[in-house]
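User: quick one, fold this
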Amino acid sequence: MHLPAELPRPLVDRAVAEALAEDLGLAGDLTSQAVLPPEATARAVLTAREAGVIAGLPLAAAAFRQIGEDVTFTAQVRDGDSVVPGTVVATVTGNARQVFSAERVALNFLNRLSGVASLTRRYVEAISGTGARICDTRKTTPGHRAFEKFAVRCGGGANHRYGLDDAILIKDNHIAVAGGVTAAFTAARAFAGHLVAIEIEVDSLKQFEEALAAGATVVLLDNMDNDTLRRAVALNAGRAQLEASGGVKLDRVRSIAETGVDYISTSQITMGAAPLDIGLDVEVSR
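Assistant:
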């Protein structure tokens, strides 16, 4: 059973508070104060203007919750749901000044994260039936990593490391300085606690065979063409979990999955995702 992705509320509240503070500055929403009566109320509808996958509702809700007690946010879909143009994502009711003041922060989070979830879903669907899984990387927007990785899960992908302290990933530069694959892996295994995972990156079949001989159980096959990936899978014979990475684009991802690797990691789903177009339309009443 796959449980829905969740975000810790303190993390959400802090990020939203910082975003609101950035937007409101020292004087608040001058436009709304200038043209809207203090007692004006509004009903706003957040609507998808293109097809995609929703992610970021907790952040959008927090933006309206934090702006004032007189605003109510009601989600009409859930994170991870697919939408088509015209789908009502949420409604917002309350004081018009407050609704307008939180609008951009709410939409910035919702548009961006829904874009990540939508592109991730396209990658996931592209490899359906192969047995491989799509993973993200640490190439994320500074300060928003937890949210973008949350969006990846909403899109059906899996998370790689959240940070440098999650697990040991021995990359080519580590290997070069450490003196080789065996030396780097042996040092990592001696250092790691029993719950710390170790993955090692290789860029040739020679390095791959050395990693297997050293006892590696998770190996990242970096920037290999599909024929080399197939040969690595054959050499592996089920001994280690294999992750393909490097140059993973949507038009190639299925052929990579069909080589038999277990995971495919790509920065495209976070760094290359365009925002999903979700708009807010307001009906004003007094």
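User: anything notable?
Assistant: The longest strand covers residues 41-48.
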